[in-house]
Write a structure and sequence with these properties.
The complex is a heterodimer.
Chain A lengths: L2 H28 L4 H5 L7 H10 L6 H13 L13 H36 L4 H15 L2 H15 L20 H38 L2 H8 L4 H26 L6 H6 L5 H10 L3 H29 L1 H4 L2
Helix pairs in contact in A: 1-13, 5-6, 5-8, 5-10, 6-8, 7-8, 8-10, 9-10, 10-13, 12-13
Chain B lengths: L3 E14 L2 E14 L3 E5 L6 H8 L7 E10 L2 E2 L5 H7 L4 E4 L13 H12 L4 H15 L15 H13 L5 E5 L7 H18 L2 E6 L2 H7 L2 E6 L2 E7 H6 L4 H9 L49 E2 L5 E2 L2 H5 L2
Classes of the chains: A mainly alpha, B alpha/beta.
The structure holds adenosine-5'-diphosphate, iron/sulfur cluster (SF4) and magnesium ion (MG).
Chain lengths: 324, 323
């Protein structure tokens, strides 16, 4: 990978970042309503109090200065006070993000593996019973709303069979002084149901994309060449078809990784997982504006970063990108 | 040098489709001697590719060899077990495919794709294989410095050269070219044909060249087999078939194509379309388009392929087919 390419992508990423921040800023200014009124419970009619409020929030400054302040606060993750927690937004949010990432780390690799392997198997048996079986199952799971699926899971394995806990991240009331074995065991037990439900909710799109690319690539001329060379079906698949089919699938996987951070709202809510998805739902309910804005910003940031990572990753998996 | 390298006997290759069977190759016979080249010519859809794919048994899933024999140095390919078949492919018979643009894996270095073929069939080190690839690049006129290139870094003509290099990698006895130049522009076409001719003489290799463009065959091949609607209608030494054309279809073909070394001009195209191989017409399959068709004969009775002497065969009622 050339330095030129890297700096070009970096510039582009920076540009997108600035665009998103500006867009957010403008959007906020353009929103109907009086920000001061939005920020306080009582109607502020006293001009002095109003001026004080405006000063407090920097609304008395000219727009360009406001923008620079806004930019600075975004870069330093200074999102202000959460309405609902009465605490610094980022202090609250970073723990929630960590919790969501734990859930994501437990479920996403699982769904990627199921999706990619399942997609290869289905694609390689295109039109045969195995493919129809896998595809129908996947479509079924995919079509079912994830909260419903998670609910069924919760009811069967959590409530009826009692195999695993389904409430929170750790057993309520138990205190752990450090990250020790007992803590991890407790965490893993609590992870089981939400992680598996989450994986089930996610693997479908990976599988269908992988299967679709595999099927497409089976029809390519170079596959015929590979067979004519005397490679076995398995060698053709592993050396020629899968590496090509991984291109669109990688694209989709990396992009979806950006959204791990939002968590599966429904799954976090259902299993009372203290993650970011739940915080966002709560924030909508309680009109916790700073929290919502921060969450949106973090998501946008993740998407931008994922795009950048993808650009870099592609130079390794697709030689056609390298020449640029 | 008269020993048969390839002998195809009454080959029938069908495709299963929902409505029944497409008889894409319907009783094809021809032979090819060592270091000879044969051209299979005919309009699109007459079963040329299917014939070629049958000889290395690389048919699509719904295709199968219904009957007939494909003898390669006396060994019947049609009933070769899977493993032996894989060993046979490329080491004995390699193929240059139609789609020059997509015949190489886009995410693998060209040289690696050639090395792969060599390592699959021969016990050599990777380094030796790579050395051979460099030699092959040189042979087909690609700068050896480009040995680390990916397919997209090559022009269409260079890609086709690379594919030719790949086809030669294991020193096969037979190289099959399925319209190796159709995807290229005219200038490059001529260069590739020259290259193929050159290599054929240098390496003394046998070739089965498929094309719908008769002028390419007259440049390249010792023998011509003219195919129409799943059957061979005329077959013989190139100069004989071209100078003493017997079949009305061959005659039309000769007039339909200009010499490839001359600029393309509008030529007389053959009126009508080849018949549907799902439901081929009775009698001579060419009768609907033939000016010489005899009512009550050509549309009822199928003309057999008759030896007219001097290894010149024809299937036409007007040309001795009545015997
Ligand atoms: N996979 C397939 N399934 C059904 N019919 C096919 C298939 N492949 C080729 N055919 C049919 O077989 C006939 C011969 O095709 P082909 O061998 O490709 O002809 P050519 O190479 O001379 O253009 C055509 O009528 C074509 O439609
Ligand atoms: S057999 Fe009859 S229809 Fe067929 S080519 Fe000869 S003359 Fe024409
Ligand atoms: Mg063809």
């Amino acid at each position: 990978m050339s330095l030129r390419y890297l700096s070009k992508r970096l510039m582009y990423t920076l540009f997108v970042f600035l665009f998103v921040v500006t867009f957010n800023f403008v959007l906020f200014r353009l929103m109907p309503g009086d920000p001061v009124a939005m920020l306080s419970k009582e109607i502020v009619s006293d001009p002095e109090a109003r001026a004080a409020m405006e000063k407090l929030y920097g609304l008395d400054k000219p727009l360009p200065i406001q923008f620079l302040n806004y930019l600075k606060s975004m870069i330093t993750f200074d999102f202000g006070q959460s309405f609902q927690y009465r605490e610094d937004v980022w202090t609250v949010l970073k723990d929630k993000i960590a919790n969501t990432l734990i859930l994501g780390a437990a479920s996403v690799p699982l769904s990627i593996i199921i999706g990619v392997v399942g997609g290869i198997i289905a694609g390689a048996h295109h039109g045969k019973k195995l493919d129809i079986g896998i595809t129908s199952f996947t479509m079924l799971v995919y079509a079912v709303p994830s909260f419903w699926l998670a609910m069924i899971f919760l009811l069967i394995f959590g409530v009826k069979l009692g195999w695993a806990p389904f409430n929170g991240m750790l057993t309520a009331g138990v205190q752990y002084n450090s990250v020790n074995w007992a803590y991890l065991k407790d965490l893993f037990r609590h992870l089981a149901l939400p992680a598996i439900s989450y994986a089930l909710a996610c693997f479908g799109s990976y599988l269908m994309i992988m299967r679709g690319s595999i099927v497409d690539i089976y029809g390519e001329d170079f596959v015929l060449t590979a067979r004519a060379k005397g490679l076995s079906e398995r060698q053709v698949r592993n050396r020629h078809i899968v590496p090509n089919a991984m291109l669109p699938t990688t694209n989709m996987i990396v992009m979806s990784l950006a959204f791990i951070i939002t968590g599966a709202f429904s799954i976090e809510v259902l299993f009372t997982w203290p993650g970011m998805g739940r915080v966002m739902v709560d924030s909508v309910m309680r009109r916790d504006y700073p929290m919502l804005q921060a969450s949106n910003y973090i998501i946008a940031l993740m998407v931008i970063i994922a795009n950048f990572v993808l650009d870099i990753l592609y130079t390794y998996i697709d030689p056609r990108v390298r020449v640029e | 040098m008269s020993e048969r390298l390839l002998e195809v006997k009454d080959l029938r290759t069908y495709f299963k489709i929902t409505a029944g069977e497409v008889k894409a190759v319907d009783g094809v016979s021809f032979f090819l001697n060592h270091s000879e080249s044969i051209g299979l010519v005919g309009e699109s859809g007459c079963g040329k590719t299917t014939t070629a794919l049958s000889t290395i048994r690389l048919l699509p899933d719904n295709g199968y060899i219904h009957s007939g024999q494909i003898l390669f140095e006396g060994r019947d390919i049609t009933n070769l077990p899977e493993k032996e078949l894989r060993d046979f492919r490329w080491a004995q018979a390699s193929m240059i495919f139609q789609g020059a643009m997509n015949a190489l894996n886009p995410v693998q270095k060209v040289s690696d794709q050639i090395v792969e073929a060599i390592l699959l069939h021969e016990k050599v080190t990777k380094r030796d294989a790579l050395e051979r690839v460099k030699g092959l690049f040189d042979l087909v006129g690609i700068d050896v410095k480009r040995v680390n290139a990916y397919p997209h870094e090559f022009s269409g003509g260079m890609r086709q050269r690379a594919i030719i290099a790949m086809a030669l990698a294991c020193n096969p006895k037979l190289v099959i070219g399925d319209e190796p130049t159709t995807a290229l522009d005219v200038m490059v076409q001529a260069q590739i044909i020259d290259l193929i001719n050159d290599l054929r003489h240098k390496l003394n290799m046998s070739m089965l060249m498929i094309t719908h463009d008769l002028s390419i065959i007259t440049e390249t091949c010792d023998r011509i087999a003219v195919m129409y609607a799943g059957k061979i209608v005329e077959y013989g030494k190139t100069d004989v078939v071209v100078r003493k054309t017997l079949h009305p279809y061959t005659d039309k073909l000769i007039h339909a194509f200009p010499n490839i070394y001359q600029p393309r001009v509008m030529v007389e195209s053959i009126p009508g379309d080849p018949p549907d191989l799902f439901n081929p017409p009775a009698g001579c399959r060419f009768n609907a388009r033939c000016e010489h068709a005899v009512k009550g004969l050509c549309d009822c009775k199928e003309p057999p392929l008759v030896d007219m002497g001097g290894e010149h065969f024809v299937a036409c009622h007007l040309r001795g087919g009545n015997q």
